[in-house]
Amino acid sequence: MLSRSAERLYWLARYMERTENTAKLVSVYMNLLMDLPKGVEMGWQQLLRINGSEKEFYEKYKSANERNVIRFMLADDSYSSSLFASLSAARENIRTTRELLPDEAWEQVNEMYLCSKSELEIVANRRSRVLFLKKIIEGCQRFSGLLSGYMSHNHPYRFIRLGRNLERADMTSRILDLASLLLADSRSDELRQYETILWMNILTALNALLMYRQHVRSRVKGDDVLNYLLLDKNLPRSVARCLVEISESIAQLPNSDALPQRVVEMENYVQAIDTREATQLQLRAILDDLQNKLGGLHGNIADNWFARMED
Amino acid sequence: MKSIWENYTTENAYDELMYSEFQPRPVSHSLCQYLNSLKKTDIDKRKIAAELAIMEMGITFTVYSDEGNIDRAWPFDIIPRIMDAREWRVIEQGLKQRLTALNCFISDVYGEQQFIKDGKIPSETINSSKNFRKECVGMKPRHNVWANICGTDLVRNKDGIMYVLEDNLRVPSGVSYMLENRVITKRVFPELLQGIDILPIDDYPTQLQDMLASIAFADTDKPLIVVLTPGIYNSAYFEHAYLAQQMGAQLVEGNDLVVKDDNCVYMRTIEGLEKVDVIYRRIDDDFLDPEVFRKDSTLGVPGLMRAWQAGNVALANAPGAGVADDKVVYAYVPEMIRYYLNEEPILPNVPTYLCSNKEHYDYVMDHLAELVVKPANESGGYGMLVGPHSTAKEVEAFRKVIQADPRNYIGQPTLAISTAPTLCKGKLEPRHIDLRPFILQGENTFVTAGGLTRVALRKGSLVVNSSQGGGSKDTWIINMEGN
């Protein structure tokens, strides 16, 4: 398979995962706001902080109210991590790799793109937004489902799996970051009373609430949630599980060179993370470090397979 | 309620489906009966369903404009164009005959040049053709076939006769739209297709793959075939990706390929370099290899011509095949058929006046307002004059253009090209159409059953090119025997 195609499929998967994650994040955040009592102030600007996009946001908008933040995160095509921009980028990548994928994959992404394009204006309205986000999440699930059901689990598929899991691990760490942020705020005394609600929503954002209950079998507690989402090797969206997927994909790809070793180091690093004694500030530092390391892993993958090989 | 046929007229041209407003031809009998059984709102619904399908399937072509490149949905008319299989079989033979003769001619041009030596065509005509490539002299592609993929444009005049308008031997496009048009028709009119015996067209990708495999130089069981595209900004990118996908071939861009010192072509894969045997190239000769042709080309592959000349990679179509895709050379095709095949042409040419010939030139100049004048080497319907549809000022301006470069222009009578009913704002109106069948030639010769019917959607317009307001129709070749 062409190096160029490998790179485009990898990014296709990353952008599709990002599209789904953004949709899920916004919908869970709306939920959380509805669960918390009026007195507890929790603004929309927190959503900007987890993608580190506050600076870019304030260059375009004055205040971080619901309307602006939603517009920025879902519909703004000049913000590269917005839902629409991610979906557009996914579509560009699949348009140039159609020959490697089942017909339905292209049609699925194209359909979602056309649907979002026509519905961008209505996301300001909460009711339409809920429906829109649901449609997007279902579309992304259909995409993953038809690839896993229709496509040979060959090299192209492995690059898709690689991209998806790297993006997923990154997003899980960012969502945990959001939790620590909310709890670290100065007004957190009041928020702390609602800590359980917060953690339940975090689990929901990662589709992990049911699995958590079955696995932990006690009430929802911050430390347990953190450990579960970071270290559990069976939960699809935990960081540890994503690394297992990454490691399996890499093992089946040619010329992986030093990459398996890198992943082992990464896995060891994650398993050694101890959040129990960590203050909010330390937790944030740990998660930042984790995100940087994931970025490093991406760099290794790109150097290894996507860089134009010297003749 | 008003009929969708209200005010339909067949007076101005031969109509493919109708004798008159009230009387369908035998081939279109079932279709007309079916259309008349639908309510007007039903027909509109089918049209909308077709447009939706086109959007979702992402069937687009790219239009260049000042505001950047826009991806437009493929304009499709849901009313099919229909032809009797008995007529089609004759056309099919004619197309095979024509491409066989054209390939004999190209081999001859780059070989012995007997056709020229026997005085059948002036040598200046060949030497001055910008698609004659001296680098190709002496080359022998497999099966002596240079033009492996040909799209021949046919039009029917008021006399009911099908004429060949031109042969596209460089990188003809449109076949993916032909295939997708049928997919859409099946979605939109499933109940109609059940009762009619229409020849299938969906084996084209398999035939293309077989043909490409048959031209590989290396005797390998499974030659590695790639489709070389100029990239996503090319107007036919959709088609390149579509055909690659349908054949299970790899779609590559120029910088995915590299020619090494052993004069072999390799593609850059995650496993290292892999040798390529056959390239279905969708890039013009000019941009194919910066070492030989245009130096500034970033689309091609440096060294590709070396590899081809060394017999290490097959190119379809072969470089230089375009020498026969020249509207001046076109005028000599009937003679080629007689000369090389010792047969009479089955399909007639449109009478053609060559401006390089003094007598013809005078005729063209005297009758400019009645003729269609075309440049010899353009495609896409650009740079031409349709005399009867132009103002006196336009005609005079074009006169100067011809005077400056007579070799590069030909004149033809303006044909009253045939029409077919086309859905326009909920009503059927006659619109002019042509037909582009696709012919494959390698070890064997294959012709698509029908082809791509293009339709000029603007009232009275004769220009069917999609870049200039043209659309397309599904083309049905119907087996009437047994009915």
UniProtKB/TrEMBL annotation, chain A:
Domain of life of the source: Bacteria
Pfam families tied to this protein: Alpha-E (PF04168)
InterPro entries in the record: ATP-dep_Glu-Cys_Ligase-2 (IPR051680), DUF403 (IPR007296)
DUF403 domain boundaries: 1-306
Name this protein carries in UniProt: Alpha-E domain-containing protein
Provenance organism: Methylovulum psychrotolerans
Lineage summary: Bacteria, Pseudomonadati, Pseudomonadota, Gammaproteobacteria, Methylococcales
Automatic annotation (TrEMBL), chain B:
Gene3D superfamilies: 3.30.1490.270, 3.40.50.11290
Record-linked Pfam families: CP_ATPgrasp_2 (PF14403)
Origin species: Methylovulum psychrotolerans
Chain ranges of the Circularly permuted ATP-grasp type domain: 80-456
InterPro entries the record matches: ATP-dep_Glu-Cys_Ligase-2, CP_ATPgrasp_2, UCP005522
Protein name per its UniProtKB record: Circularly permuted type 2 ATP-grasp protein
Source domain of life: Bacteria
